[in-house]
Amino acid sequence: METTSRSVAQAPAAEGGQPLPSARRAVDDYLRASFPWYGLDEAFTGPRWLMQVGTSADGSVEHGSIGHGDEPTVRSEYAAAAGADGPKEKFAVVVTVAANPVRRSADGTGLLEATSVSSAAWLAGVGLLTFTWPGQIDHSLRDDWLEQQTETAWELADDLDGPVWSSLTLPVDGVPTPFHYRESEFGWVLAGSTPSGVHLGAYGRGMSAYGLGFAVIKDIGAYAG
C-alpha cells in the first residue's frame, strides 16, 4: 500500500481511557502538537469544540479533530428523538494530520508508511461512522456493521482516484485548494493537503461542504475557556 499504515488511523486517543478531561487538560493535548491545527475559517460563526488527539508509539501527537456546529449524536438515536424527518443537527469536523514521512511501529522495531491525504480520508471516514448507526440494525449487530463499514472506509481512502470520489476546490488560508470529496446516506467526507504541509480531512452532515473554508487556528489555547 502506498498510503498510511492502518495503525496510524487507529492511533489511541491521548486520554487512554481515562476519565473525561477538563477543557484545560483537553487543550493541553492539542498544544503538544508540532504542527498547526486547522478549523473552519472565520465565515463560520457557530460553536467550536475540541474532540480528541491521536498519538504515535512514542507519544507524539499525529492527528486530532475540531468540531463545529451541533455536537453530533448517533444518527439512529437522534432520528428516533427527532421523529420521521430524521436528524436536524448540523455539524462539520475538521481533522488535521501531521505530514510524517517516517514513523516507528508500535513496538519500536520497525518503520511505518508515511502519512498522506489517504490518512486524512480514512480518519474522516471513520469519524463519520462514529456518529452513524442505521436504525434498522439491532444493537447487538452494531459491532459487525461498524467493522464492515470501517473496512469499506479504509478501501475508499486508499483509492482516492476511484469513481466514488469527486473533486471539490475549497479555500485553505485563503488559497483555493483541491480536495477529494464523497457523499453517503450518512453524511459527507473530504480530504486534501494544505499549503503549510499538513493533511486535512473533514466530515459532517446537515451542513453543506460546498460553502466551507479552512484556516489555521491562531490560538488553540482559547479552547481551554
Overall description:
This protein is of the alpha+beta class. The chain has one domain. Helices cover 23% and strands 29% of the residues. It has helices at 6-9, 23-31, 75-82, 117-130, 142-157; strands spanning 38-40, 48-55, 61-69, 91-97, 103-104, 111-112, 166-172, 175-184, 187-193, 199-205, 214-216. A 7-stranded antiparallel beta sheet has the order 2-3-4-10-9-8-7. It is globular.
Multimeric state: single chain
Unreliable spans? 1-21, 76-86
Mean pLDDT equals 78
Question: Overall 3D geometry?
Answer: globular
Quick tags:
225 residues, two-stranded antiparallel ribbon, alpha+beta, 5 helices, seven-stranded antiparallel beta sheet, 11 strands
Topology overview:
Elements (H helix, E strand, L loop, with lengths): L5 H4 L13 H9 L6 E3 L7 E8 L5 E9 L5 H8 L8 E7 L5 E2 L6 E2 L4 H14 L11 H16 L8 E7 L2 E10 L2 E7 L5 E7 L8 E3 L9
Helix pairs in contact: 4-5
Could you give a short description of this structure?
By secondary structure, the protein is of the alpha+beta class.
